[in-house]
From TrEMBL:
SUPFAM superfamilies: Periplasmic binding protein-like II. Residues 1-26 form the signal peptide. It holds the Pfam family LysM. The lineage of its organism: Bacteria, Pseudomonadati, Pseudomonadota, Alphaproteobacteria, Rhodobacterales. This is Transporter substrate-binding domain-containing protein. It comes from the Bacteria. Residues 31-80 form the LysM domain. It comes from Albidovulum marisflavi. Keywords: Signal. SMART domains: LysM.
């Protein structure tokens, strides 16, 4: 159960000051960049955008970066997105979305009666799902658009329920909703090492192909001996903070579960970061977008650093309870729509445009 993440106020100075790792040679947004020895995604983002939050670079270069974003290969050529999230030489996000919408509008519609698919989202989880963002955040936009792509012409209804626990325990199992939007799914082939709550996801739900792949970072104080750790084994015997109700399978895969570690589980990302700076924990870990917001909110960018050697890529999917008689059909439809959206560029356009809106909102709040 993902804990509801609050919409953080971010100081402009905090965004500009957030630095991960050491400085890289100057890069510019909206260009290609060849990775040099000593570069990290954080240093590249810092040089190109003035912030160490590098998720959008990862999004634009997922195929060439691979599964270990902490270990860039020297000589790899990266496309650095423009300030609006688009790729140099490509159409803008708005133009791509408009073109795909026009094509979908010309697709013949089925005359057969079919009930709308009922989507279930959680609010106040910007930029993923938030009623204050256009279309409700990029997870909602992706789900609703998928129902009109890949040959799909299915209607839908979307509701926001902020009780994340109820999503998995009641609302999806009872059929009140068909598809849950935005759940981190473990590698179910490793179920023997997973906790009961993570195995529950494998046993009770069918999932789409990965919808989004956030990078999880591991944060320490800059002067901590753990700041440059090169193995997750260095975290054993330490105090680690991960928010209550959040996924834990990445820790479980590395043997970082009690009693090998002491796990602290407060409510919000900012709680974990505050615990880090006050010395209550040794490591705070979460996906890097939430971390960037929390670090800037607390004004601790000069004190906290992401470990440039260790990172995990995790998968977010749309899910249906296995008792839903149409669940597998809906999953198949969504996979079909999402696959077309990736091929057309609409998947990236929706995500990048939402991230831009989210960041613009944060800057407005800071001014």
């Amino acid at each position: 159960m993902e804990q509801r993440i609050q919409f953080f106020r971010v100081a402009a100075a905090g965004i500009a000051a957030l630095l991960v790792g050491t400085s890289a040679s100057a890069q510019e947004a909206c260009t290609s960049y060849t990775v040099k020895a000593g570069d990290s995604l954080g240093t590249i983002a810092q040089s190109a955008y003035g912030t160490g939050e590098y998720q959008n670079i990862f999004n634009a270069n997922r195929n060439v970066i691979g599964d270990d974003p902490a270990n860039l290969v020297e000589g790899t050529v990266l496309n650095l997105p423009c300030e609006d999230g688009s790729i140099a030489g490509a159409a803008s996000a708005d133009a791509i979305i408009a073109e795909q919408t026009k094509i979908a509008a010309s697709t013949p519609k089925s005359n057969a009666y079919e009930p709308p698919v009922k989507f279930l989202a959680g609010g106040n989880y910007a930029p993923f799902s938030d009623e204050g963002l256009s279309g409700g955040g990029f997870l909602v936009r992706l789900a609703e658009t998928a129902m009109q792509r890949g040959g799909n012409t299915r209607g839908y209804q979307t509701a926001f329920v902020n009780d994340w626990g109820a999503h998995l325990e009641t609302l999806l199992p009872t059929g009140a909703f068909d598809i849950g939007l935005g759940w981190f799914m473990p590698n179910c082939e490793k179920r023997d090492i997973l906790s009961e709550s993570m195995r529950y996801r494998c046993d009770q739900f069918d999932a789409t192909l990965p919808v989004y792949e956030p990078v999880v970072g591991y944060y320490t104080m800059k002067d901590s001996p753990l700041a440059g750790a090169t193995s997750f084994d260095a975290y054993k015997g330490k105090r680690i903070c991960r928010m209550d109700g959040y996924f834990t399978f990445d820790l479980e895969e590395e043997g970082l579960t009690p009693p090998a570690i002491e796990l602290m589980q407060p409510t919000l990302p900012s709680d974990c970061m505050e615990a880090l700076v006050t010395g209550a924990v040794d490591v705070a870990t979460m996906e890097i977008q939430s971390a960037a917001d929390a670090i800037a909110t607390l004004g601790i960018s000069a004190d906290v650093v992401e470990n440039a050697n260790l990172a995990k890529v995790v998968s977010m999917s749309f899910i249906a309870h296995k008792s839903n008689p149409f669940g597998k059909q809906y999953i198949t439809m969504m996979n079909r729509g999402l696959s077309e959206m990736r091929n057309s560029g609409e998947w990236y356009a929706i995500i990048s445009s939402t991230l831009k809106e989210h960041n613009d909102n944060l800057m407005k709040l800071a001014n």
